[in-house]
Specification:
about 300 residues; alpha+beta; 3-stranded antiparallel beta sheet
Length: about 300
């Protein structure tokens, strides 16, 4: 089971215990060897964490080390029925090689006759979307929003440096660890992009950039757009182009018809406006997002 250090992401009061557990896991991995064949008998399955179209996610514990993980169970017949098997293979290939503090690591994977199992780090804080829904007025403070956007921008910049486009950034695909830090997850729509230009439409309607809607070629700058939509949603509580119909949403996206509420600060509007640009080349790169005055000034004021 591939494992990177997680101690810097846990509270101080339990850090020593986690370090001891990590040491035990590393010893266990060494004993098992790199060719060890994992099966469900290695895990105790706990509570369900979520469900999707092709399977479910469960909390689980590795029996020997007692290390808590999340196991994503995918049903092969459903994947084949919807021609999604290649997408899962791509998800495994991509997520196996990504190692970043704000990206949920795929620890290992295995399969049996009927299912594919992805063993992921357990993010105790759950979905960012659910946390957002539980906030007063269903929105975060600008300080907390700035913290999250900074971490997402760092993770996306890392992905792009490794030639990966995520293509489905949204609150439902962002998890929180024990300290309230972002873990970018669900790489099902991600793609290696050495060619740098693609035409497949994917992602979530409210987050689609103009070039996807208009069936134009695109590159990693589709993710810049998604970060802009995310920033707006975290502060306001809903996506900027949301309407009652898909076509009306598409029309607003193509016009970049953004309506800012009065409570949204001018610096926050400035950042969003620099990300939500019709021309992809005009969008602010992730490295510049992280040093934007709004991020720098508001991030220390995060209350989550």
């Amino acid at each position: 089971m591939s494992l990177r250090s997680v101690t810097k992401n846990v509270p101080e009061e339990i850090r020593e215990a986690v370090e001891l557990l990590e040491s035990k896991i590393m010893q266990d991995r060494a004993l098992k060897g790199p060719d060890y064949k994992w099966t469900m008998s290695d895990f105790q399955i706990g509570a369900p964490l979520g469900r999707g179209k092709f399977g479910r996610v469960y909390l689980a514990r590795e029996k020997n080390t007692h290390y808590m993980v999340a196991i994503k169970l995918l049903i092969k017949s459903e994947l084949l029925k919807h021609s999604m098997q290649h997408q899962v293979i791509r998800e495994i290939e991509i997520q196996t090689h990504l190692r970043h503090p704000n990206i949920l690591p795929l620890l290992t994977y295995f399969q049996d006759e009927k299912r594919i199992y992805l063993v992921l780090e357990f993010a105790e804080g759950g979905e960012l979307f659910k946390t957002l829904q539980n906030q007063p007025n269903q929105r975060f403070s600008e300080g907390t929003s700035a913290k999250f956007i900074d971490q997402v921008a760092d993770a996306i910049d890392y992905c792009h440096r490794n030639r990966v486009i995520h293509r489905d950034i949204k609150p439902e695909n962002l998890l929180l660890d024990a300290r309230g830090n972002i873990k970018l997850a669900d790489f099902g729509w991600s793609v290696h992009a050495p060619v740098n230009k693609r035409k497949t439409m994917c992602g979530t309607v409210d987050y689609l950039p103009p070039e996807m809607i208009e069936n134009r070629s695109y590159n990693e700058k589709v993710d810049y757009w998604c970060v802009g939509v995310l920033c707006y949603e975290l502060i306001v509580g809903k996506p900027p182009f949301e309407t009652n119909s898909q076509q009306a949403t598409f029309d607003r996206i193509k016009k970049v018809d953004i309506r800012y509420p009065q409570f949204m600060s001018s610096p926050a509007r400035d950042l969003v406006s620099k990300l939500l640009r019709y021309n992809p080349d005009d969008r602010l790169p992730m490295t510049q997002v992280r040093v934007h005055p709004w991020i720098v000034s508001m991030k220390p004021k995060a209350d989550l």
